[in-house]
Design a protein that fits this description.
Keywords: Aminotransferase, Transferase. This protein is of the alpha/beta class. The chain is 40% helix and 13% strand. The protein starts with 7 loop residues before the first helix and ends with a helix.
Length: 426
């Protein structure tokens, strides 16, 4: 049924039927959670052999005792593993702890307070308010970093190719205090889009039109999380940066947080030699080195890029049926209705859903009342404010298949009922 072309009588009949369905869901006593993109129990069990995998051998291939201090930027074997898997020159890579978010926060903090480009390069030494471009809908943790550090966020819309670059370039040309842009370039959080080659190239060129010490925060968190073998590849941002002479502007981040154990993985940052030198200099005041034993555990488990890919194929076999259920319910319940839109992701952890304007918060609240917790409406925008109140992030990775079936049935009813009631009250 196309709600937009329906008569009032048809809408009233639909409202009565949907209200009855909704009340039945409310009385069922469900408690389902689709709030965050956590790996499921089946996924983390794929890495259970990490426990005991060293078998008492604590010496690296290079003869280093991994139980002792040192190795601020990680062990060579872990650098090679990430370099091969993400197609990055091994000389550019620094290994961190379990969280790429920590490396992103540290990078932003160091750039703001101390500078990554030598003496006088700290953002806060310039006169004016430091700002970041934030493509939306986006990752709430990126926005939290900016908010915590007092960096003003400027939202820019995205389409299926990535951020709208005409607007990004116009803003950056006009304001030298825009010092960064957040990017999730492959299987973006939450839309699932893959940045086009043109968008990657234009982002790599931004430092040429920006103020001093501009940085691209390239959070490639989902690069290896493929659901469809035909998924589009991502262009190499470092290749474009070299062409434009902007290699010092690019900071790449990634981790095994959703590959092995989410709370006990390994993270990396890739950057130019000058960025790495500055980062390590600042980092050395707070750390003597990361967990080298955990790095070796991951080397033993994943081995190389081929082993990494095989491990991710097992993840996909667990994840894809969950996303297929979401797509099935959205198509069967809302396709052709004229009241909703979404992108079918080929990888990543989320489905980005847009309702009619002004309804996202209401839909999320209705779902909660029927036993389904969703990511708060607005979370995918800076300061938690979606000006259209339309975007909802669905995260189907953690619940069981049966739970996703139940949750999506409720979600579709909530979307329809909220929309019909809005139309009847217009």
């Amino acid at each position: 049924m196309n709600f937009q072309s329906a008569s009032r009588a048809q809408l009233e009949a639909a409202e009565a039927e949907l209200a009855q369905q909704y009340q039945a869901h409310q009385s069922s006593g469900l408690s389902l959670d689709l709030t965050r993109g956590k790996p499921s129990t089946e996924q983390v069990e794929l890495s259970s052999s990490l426990d005991g995998i060293l078998a008492g051998n604590y010496i690296s291939e290079e003869g280093v005792d991994l139980r002792n201090y040192g190795g601020l930027d990680g062990i060579p074997g872990m650098k090679r593993l990430f370099a091969e898997t993400f197609s990055i020159d091994v000389s550019r890579i620094l290994i961190g702890g379990n969280s790429s978010l920590t490396l992103m926060y540290q990078s932003a903090l160091f750039a703001l307070q101390f500078g990554l480009g030598g003496e006088g390069s700290a953002w806060n030494q310039e006169s004016g308010e430091v700002k970041f471009i934030c493509p939306v809908p986006g990752y709430d943790r990126h926005f939290s970093v900016c908010e915590h550090l007092g960096i003003k966020m400027i939202p820019v819309a995205m389409d299926e190719n990535g951020p709208l670059m005409d607007e990004v370039e116009s803003l950056i040309k006009a304001d030298p205090m825009i010092k960064g842009i957040w990017c999730v370039p492959r299987f973006s959080n939450p839309t699932g889009c893959v940045y086009s080659d043109e968008v990657v190239d234009r982002i790599a060129a931004l430092a040429g039109i920006a103020g001093n010490n501009f940085r691209v925060f390239w959070d490639n968190a989902y690069a290896v999380h493929i659901l469809d073998d035909e998924a589009k590849e991502l262009a190499d941002v470092f290749v474009s940066a070299k062409k434009h002479g902007t290699e010092d502007s690019v900071l790449i981040f990634g981790s095994t947080s959703k590959v092995t154990f989410a709370g006990a993985g390994v993270a990396f940052m890739a950057a130019s030699s000058s960025n790495l030198a500055a980062f390590k200099r600042h980092l050395g005041f707070s750390s003597i080195g990361p967990d080298k034993l955990n790095q070796q555990r991951h080397i033993n488990l994943l081995k190389d890029a081929t082993g990494f890919k095989a491990h991710m194929t097992q993840h996909a076999a667990i994840l894809k049926p969950r996303f297929d259920i979401v797509e099935k319910y959205l198509i069967e319940g809302l396709a052709g209705s004229g009241i909703a839109s979404w992108l079918k992701p080929q990888g990543g952890y989320f489905v980005s859903f847009d309702s009619e304007p002004g309804l996202a918060k209401q839909i999320v609240a209705m779902a909660a009342d029927a036993g389904v917790k969703l990511t708060p409406a607005g979370a995918t925008f800076p300061y938690g404010h979606d000006p259209k109140d339309a975007n909802i992030r669905l995260a189907p990775s953690y619940p069981s298949l049966e739970e996703i079936e139940q949750a999506m049935a409720i979600f579709v009813v909530c979307v329809k009922l909220a929309t019909v009631r809005k139309m009847l009250n217009a």
